[in-house]
Amino acid sequence: MDQHQHLNKTAESESSEKKKTRRCNGFKMFLAALSFSYIARALGGIIMKMSITQIERRFDISSSLAGLIDGSFEIGNLLVIVFVSYFGSKLHRPKLIGIGCLIMGTGSILTALPHFFMGYYRYSKETHINPSENSTSSLSTCLINQTLSFNRTSPEIVEKGCLKESGSHMWMYVFMGNMLRGIGETPIGPLGISYIDDFAKEGHSSLYLGSLNAIGMIGPVIGFILGSLFAKMYVDIGYVDLSTIRITPKDSRWVGAWWLGFLVSGLFSITSSIPFFFLPQNPNKPQKERKVSLSLHVLKTNDERSQTANLTNRGKKVTKTVTGFFQSLKSLLTNPLYVMFVLLTLLQISSFIGSFTYIFKYMEQQYGQSASQANFLLGVITIPTIATGMFLGGYIIKKFKLSLVGIAKFSLLTSIISFLFQLIYFPLICESKSVAGLTLTYDGNNSVASHIDVPLSYCNSECNCDESQWEPVCGNNGITYLSPCLAGCKSLSGIKKSTVFYNCSCVEVTGLRNRNYSAHLGECPRDDACTRKFYIYVAIQVINSLFSATGGTVCILLIVKIVQPELKALAMGFHSMVIRTLGGILAPIYFGALIDKTCMRWSTTSCGARGACRIYNSVFFGRVYLGLSTALRFSALVLYIVFIFVMKKKFQGKDTKASDNERKVMDEANLEFLNNGEHFVPSAGADSKTCNLDMQDNAAAK
């Protein structure tokens, strides 16, 4: 008998251990799957940011329209965030996250699809230079157009080609794909964090979240590497003979293989979704739910009796809930500290998002760096600097046990230092390129007051040139000309990229003593002084990013302390909505619209409409780009000072030391910042990202 009981106990023990192991394995599998999804969402976000300039050129659209495409991610996110936050915890969370990853991957692939339907990219729509192999042509006058094959097609053919060329509305698919990616990304953070909070062992959730977000940093690393690699590849790689392409990655018309990045990130997202569909809804039911289940079992017999009463009370509860929501919202909006904090973080984040969206374009246009070089440099700078700054800031706050006001002051101090370093960017603006017909007269001897309708010079007035043509050549006098014809060139030799033009009359009149008045394809490179400024810019970027990240980690903690405890989740959710709507969507649009104002020469689409910008006024571009970012940050700093003054009065004499739990929240926020891929990189205003830490994630976790 005793032996029989012993065997039963042993069997029960083994069964219990198996269940425990199964539940443990289920939770660990969820963590592993969620880690891959974090990598996938960060990868997709970085790829979009790095590709925005390539997309602008490929689809022949303005910077403001490219900014709208970039903001469509936030539009998609806002469409479903309420549904996910409210219903997500009541449904099968792993499957919901899996569906989100699947949608996110589908969105990325949809973004890449237009490449396969648009036909080949034509970087020169007006003319094509086709010199014969090693030929040299000598013409009595600069009738260089005799060696140019003008593609003047009939209106009917042009109209039919509009749907396939980059000037059409094919960019709408990119817009919808990015919006779909935003919809799919929504459940990953909120439901993942709430799932970990529910089923992790007590005290372990912080460790799991820290590990999760640290692993998620792999996404930006992969993104920067792939972005740099694909930017070197020609957009139609695999479809055209690359030896026939005469432009280089430094040409303003160059478009890299932007679509490859979206295909890779899309396939990775879809693959990361698979494990979630095989995970249980509740791997290890928490104690709270056990008690609830027991109570429901005991009360089950009374359900039928109280059903009528419940139906009557339900309407009252809904009315009470709606009324309570508006009362809570009113309480938030009448809280001066909260309103000020929302405004100052909106200004900071708008500065960051606008700056980061166009930082790749800025480095290309200002310093003559190719997209590949800009992507690689930002990747090398970003990750170690941000990581060091975030952990250094957390260490200082914990080491000195700063009060709430002390933390705010520390953040303000580092923001001011970062702001002062940003002012150094202004002297690093390079002079505009010397371009005959835009910044100089065509003879290259005098500057012009305006780039609009610069008259022809005696050196090219008889050449019968097409002034709308954009086929830049660099004269051996260091001046860029809009085309070989406008440079007055009369002969040429070589093939494709190595084509050289000779006897260029507009180059001749600039005072060269030798008789070699030649020009070669492509814009002239930046001078040595501008190159030195670029290296200084990179160094300041590192320092600026370090200070920004060091002090910019406290917004979660500040939000939960300046509102009533029962309003914390609503405060964070409303803050996130304002930031995403007015910052994530609008900032890229108005930054892009102002940048468009600095364009000196636009391309022409196959439909005859204005396309993408070919060249900007470097000085005006720098002043607008840096000036707008600086103005937003300065306004935020002024509000920050007022905010601290008011907060100091309110909390005077109170114990405002950050508790261990609050510091834990801040640590998790720091790690979430490191992982977040959609707006991730230091630029002018890097500290502004600190409050856009997926607030809805934390609200859902509450």
From TrEMBL:
Disordered: region residues: 1-20
Membrane topology field: Multi-pass membrane protein
Organism of origin: Theropithecus gelada (Gelada baboon)
Keyword tRNA-binding included in the entry's annotation: no
One function term, GO molecular function aspect: sodium-independent organic anion transmembrane transporter activity
Location in the cell: Cell membrane
Name the UniProt record assigns to this protein: Solute carrier organic anion transporter family member
Gene that this polypeptide is encoded by: SLCO1B3
Main location: membrane
Assigned GO CC terms: basolateral plasma membrane
Domain Kazal-like: 453-508
InterPro entries linked to this entry: Kazal_dom, Kazal_dom_sf, MFS_dom, MFS_trans_sf, OATP
Annotated transmembrane regions: 26-44, 65-84, 96-117, 214-235, 255-279, 337-360, 376-397, 404-425, 534-560, 572-595, 624-647
Biased composition (Basic and acidic residues): 1-18
Domain Major facilitator superfamily (MFS) profile stretches: 30-650
Family indicated by similarity: Belongs to the organo anion transporter (TC 2.A.60) family.
GO biological processes: monoatomic ion transport; sodium-independent organic anion transport
The UniProt record lists the keyword Heme: no
The entry's keywords: Cell membrane, Disulfide bond, Ion transport, Membrane, Transmembrane, Transmembrane helix, Transport
